[in-house]
């Protein structure tokens, strides 16, 4: 494995992830500015600032640890009025008092960041629909990036498929479940071999049916029975017309994806159909962009399932990291794990895994990462975008109910009251990151064992 190529793979995915984060924050920044909110900072990363420039009223910069990003909008909480909104009873617990003080301190700090002339330019002053647009802008940007990358992968690079180019020709007719090393001695020669079909030939038509995909080959051969049919192949740039006589034999039933169907006991389900004795060549085949929505939905569903089962998955990661259990190759990964896989892809020296396959895999990884950012940020917990979305929705419901009851505007939801929960969620995320970091080091997931 080349160290230089490994490092290149890590850098490519790191740059792609950094760009995805930057565009996520632009998804928040643009609508916020369009709605007149004063945005004081646009930052990529966390920690000490290593570079920044101020343009207008916004400071744009990069911080030392590029593991996220944020924009800072003034007035995320209702303005501080100089005294708590609720009265703390003398018998209130210390925890309740601390929570109230935390809320008031946060609002006081927020209010100190702007003057009365900017009160109308705060986030909290936005209408509910505008708040939703601002907070959903980031995740939506990740969804768009994911869909664009999937389109490039599907229509530009191609999807794994079996092509009508012949990879191998059987020497004889063997039972469907015969081991690969079964001898052909005394067995009937395969019809394709007898017809003169060779590896490298591209099948163009069978029995007058034009061939464009491997499923066309399968359908034409199975429907031919044991009739002698014309077979047109392309060999070394020349078109040859051959004749083949398939045999009727017990062959596996295939599903919609071309995979063999097995029964409940794991045995192949077979049917009597025409058999020729050729296998196609696996390759990346460009597909229509029309398949992208289905692919995006499948990726979204699997990512959503991963997020919903995250506590269980993290428990399994812990068992693997601190015990003898195997790591789930489809389980959650940290930054180190993703970087390692990217390096393996770039440096891989595997037959059939050339530059196009590597580029396609990299694009697929970035598409999946962006889908993960989209889904994860929709979780209705602060400090995630989904927490602010949930707050805006609650605010909208409250105002609607007040209007229906003929009451006055109840005002915005005070999200500062959730700061204790926010800190707990942030701590959980930190512990999760540390666990994944450790697991990715001591028991990494690899593509090429």
TrEMBL record:
Compartments reported by the entry: Membrane
Requisite cofactors: Zn(2+)
Coiled coil region boundaries: none
Recorded family membership: Belongs to the peptidase M50B family.
UniProt organism field: Brachybacterium fresconis
GO molecular function: peptidase activity
Keywords assigned: Hydrolase, Membrane, Metalloprotease, Protease, Transmembrane, Transmembrane helix, Zinc
Name by which UniProt lists this protein: Membrane-associated protease RseP (Regulator of RpoE activity)
């Amino acid at each position: 494995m080349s160290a230089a190529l490994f490092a290149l793979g890590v850098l490519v995915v790191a740059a792609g992830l950094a760009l995805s984060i930057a565009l996520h924050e632009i998804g928040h920044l643009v609508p916020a500015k369009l709605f007149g909110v004063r945005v004081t900072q646009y930052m990529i990363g966390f920690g000490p600032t290593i570079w920044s420039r101020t343009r207008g009223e916004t400071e744009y910069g990069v911080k030392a640890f590029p593991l996220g990003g944020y924009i800072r909008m003034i007035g995320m909480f209702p303005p501080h009025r100089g005294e708590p909104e609720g009265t703390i009873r003398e018998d209130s617990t210390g925890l309740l008092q601390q929570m109230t003080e935390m809320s008031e301190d946060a609002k006081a700090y927020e209010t100190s960041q702007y003057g009365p002339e900017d009160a109308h330019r705060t986030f909290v002053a936005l209408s509910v629909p505008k708040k939703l647009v601002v907070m959903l802008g980031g995740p939506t940007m990740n969804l768009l990036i994911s869909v664009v990358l999937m389109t490039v992968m599907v229509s530009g690079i191609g999807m794994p498929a079996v092509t009508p180019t012949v990879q191998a020709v059987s020497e004889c007719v063997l039972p469907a479940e015969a081991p690969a090393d079964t001898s052909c001695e005394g067995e009937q020669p395969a019809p394709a071999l007898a017809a003169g079909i060779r590896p490298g030939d591209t099948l163009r038509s069978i029995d007058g049916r034009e061939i464009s995909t491997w499923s066309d080959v399968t359908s034409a051969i199975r429907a031919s029975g044991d009739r002698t049919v014309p077979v047109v192949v392309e060999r070394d740039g020349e078109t040859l017309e051959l004749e083949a006589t398939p045999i009727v034999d017990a062959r596996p039933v295939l599903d919609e994806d071309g995979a063999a169907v097995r029964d409940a006991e794991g045995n192949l389900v077979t049917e009597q159909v025409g058999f020729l004795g050729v296998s196609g060549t696996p390759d990346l085949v460009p597909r229509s962009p029309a398949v992208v929505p289905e692919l995006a939905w499948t990726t979204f569903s699997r990512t959503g399932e991963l997020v919903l089962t995250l506590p269980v998955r993290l428990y399994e990661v812990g068992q693997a990291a601190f015990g003898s259990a195997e790591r789930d190759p489809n389980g959650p990964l940290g930054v180190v794990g993703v970087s390692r896989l990217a390096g393996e892809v770039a440096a891989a020296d595997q037959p059939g895994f050339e530059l196009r396959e590597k580029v396609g895999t990299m694009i697929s990884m970035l598409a999946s990462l962006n889908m993960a950012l989209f889904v994860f940020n929709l979780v209705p917990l602060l400090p995630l975008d989904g927490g602010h979305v949930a707050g805006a929705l609650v605010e909208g419901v409250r105002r609607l109910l007040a209007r229906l009851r003929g009451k006055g505007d109840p005002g915005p939801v005070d999200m500062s009251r959730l700061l204790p929960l926010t800190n707990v969620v942030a701590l959980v995320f930190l512990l999760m990151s540390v666990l994944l970091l450790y697991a990715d080091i001591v028991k990494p997931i690899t593509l090429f064992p």
